[in-house]
Design brief:
With about 210 residues, this protein is of the alpha+beta class. It is built from 4 helices and 11 strands, in the order E-E-E-H-E-E-E-H-E-E-H-E-H-E-E.
């Protein structure tokens, strides 16, 4: 029962919802009034909405997206900071048996997990960029060594001091070897770094 269209309608703010990840792709970036869509979700207690026959407006609040279709499933996906809905549509009329509805419920859980992971990756990527900018601006040589044998990190000052190829990520063995070659006149301060995402040590190197 392959859908003829599939799209992610993401709420950008209280009044705006935008189509993303659509098939066919020409539906991407279409904008829909989010207010009636949100009301529909509240009215249905955020449960999956099954339309064996697409109703006319105003109940169908996005007729342009559903043009030429007979049946639709609307799957609410609540993921911060941009919740939304997944819309699946068919040109031929569909009957939504209990097995199909069980399948949709399972898909909804999987979609939420995938979208949550995507949002977290974007969030952590933004944090990493800001963190990198801060550390690069610090005049001291700084080295992060991951306790789980993952890639370590150095700022520009540390890269110059340790004669590394450049700032950024380096293998733990490379960092340990370079630090071991430092003259005894250099002082290394070790600060523990413990969080849900990473455990390690931040080394501040001064002469």
């Amino acid at each position: 029962m392959q859908a003829d269209i599939a799209l992610h309608l993401e709420f950008e703010d209280e009044n705006t919802a935008r189509v993303k990840d659509a098939s066919p792709v020409q539906l991407n970036n279409q904008v829909v009034n989010a207010v009636p869509v949100r009301k529909m979700l509240y009215d249905h207690s955020f449960k999956i909405i099954y339309w064996p026959e697409i109703p006319p407006p105003p109940e169908n609040m996005f007729p342009a997206l559903l043009e030429g279709l007979s049946s639709v499933v609307i799957i609410p996906v609540y993921v911060e900071p941009h919740p939304g809905v997944i819309v699946l549509g068919w040109r031929k009329p569909q009957t939504y048996h209990s097995d199909f509805q069980d399948c949709m419920a399972s898909i909804r859980l999987q979609l939420k997990e995938i979208l949550t992971q995507s949002q977290q990756q974007l969030h952590f990527r933004g944090i990493a960029v800001r963190f990198d900018a801060i550390l690069q601006a610090i005049p001291d040589a700084m080295v992060f060594i991951n306790d789980e044998d993952a890639q370590g990190w150095v700022n520009q000052q540390a890269a110059d001091l340790l004669s590394l190829s450049g700032p950024g990520e380096h293998a733990p063995a490379v960092l340990s070897g370079a630090i071991a070659q430092l003259p005894i006149t250099f002082r290394v301060t070790r600060l523990p770094v413990v969080s849900q995402q990473v455990n390690g040590q931040l080394l501040i190197i001064k002469e």
